[in-house]
Design goal:
By secondary structure, the protein is an alpha/beta fold. It is built from twelve helices and seven strands. The protein has one domain: 3-Layer(aba) Sandwich (Rossmann fold). The two termini are 30 Å apart.
Length: 306
């Protein structure tokens, strides 16, 4: 009997639906035992988010400051043949509850020398978050054998408005008569995520080791090359502003609020100007950077690829 541990945290419930679809073949297999570990922060994060609290979360997110979490149901000594780690992306970083779990004493024992598949459901900017995740998993001694990234159906431009509208209102939309599209991963993409679980069942049944080729050929990730430089630029800006806000006090501090307002103005200006400009420039110089872009896409798509 193969043992699989599934760790996840979902606010809206979308990631839980993705996890359910992904793991359905595993749950239905008589040769696989699946343990679900839902992370519970102390206190939990609200959904929908109050606006200022949402923005006030980004310094801790980008600096991976672990929040308190309730003791998990699994122990450091528990042994699994595979760990599936599902996470949201907060401010181009893994969500704080997942960060808290990965920095807990339990994680040090659970992940050491274990194959791990990461599962992401977010808008289409996930590259920098996965880079942080790779670093944390390497630090735990884990082996990343697969990554799946399901992104919002609204696309790059549409999700700039659709995702914040969903996060702050709790309503996926569409809003304003369709001017702001529906947020979230398309229903058919969620349903089709079961193909990844089926591949894992087949690998187990064949007695094959779980290596970097586990999910290749299944269209697990698609790297949007026009967003690579935008993510890097935004990541640097997040760290600069995050460092300033952390110096002013802890999350929720009254001293942070005036600077948060200034930061919001900066963020909106960057979204309106810098990000679109970066995309245009990227496309304009693409003929001269084709080889470098191809290498970047291959790197960020590892280990699953398209």
């Amino acid at each position: 009997m193969k043992k699989v541990l599934v760790i996840h945290y979902s606010q809206s419930g979308q990631l839980s639906n993705v996890v359910r679809s992904f793991t359905q073949p595993l749950v239905e297999s008589s040769a696989v035992s699946v343990t679900f570990e839902n992370i519970h922060p102390k206190p939990d994060y609200p959904f929908p988010w109050p606006f200022l609290q949402f923005i006030d979360t980004f310094p801790e997110s980008v600096y991976l400051d672990p929040p308190l979490i309730q003791p998990p149901g699994v122990g450091a000594g528990d042994d699994f043949d595979l760990i599936i780690l599902a996470y949201q992306v907060w401010f181009l970083s893994p969500s704080l509850p997942v960060t808290g779990f990965l920095q807990s004493p339990v994680a040090a024992g659970l992940f050491n020398d274990k194959p791990v598949v990461t599962l992401i459901a977010c808008r289409d900017m996930w590259l920098m978050a996965q880079e942080e995740m790779k670093t944390m998993l390497t630090g735990l001694g884990a082996h990343l054998v697969g990554n799946v990234a399901l992104v919002d159906e609204a696309g790059t431009i549409g999700s700039f408005l659709a995702t914040p509208a969903w996060v702050l209102s709790g309503n996926r939309g569409p809003h304003l008569g369709g001017l702001i599209p529906r947020a979230g991963v398309a229903d058919h993409q969620i349903e089709e995520a079961s193909r990844f679980g089926q591949r894992i069942v087949e690998k187990f049944a064949g007695g094959e080791a779980l290596g970097p080729n586990l999910l290749q050929g299944l269209k697990a990730v698609r790297v949007n090359e026009t967003l690579i430089s935008s993510e890097k630029t935004a990541r640097r800006a997040f760290r600069i502003w995050g460092k300033l806000l952390r110096r002013l006090g802890p999350q929720g501090s009254i001293k942070r609020k005036p600077v948060i307002v200034v930061y919001v103005v900066f963020l909106v200006a960057m979204i309106i100007t810098v990000v679109p400009l970066g995309i245009v420039i990227k496309k304009a110089i693409a003929p001269w950077t084709r080889d470098r872009i191809a290498r970047q896409k291959a790197y960020y798509g590892e280990p699953s690829g398209w």
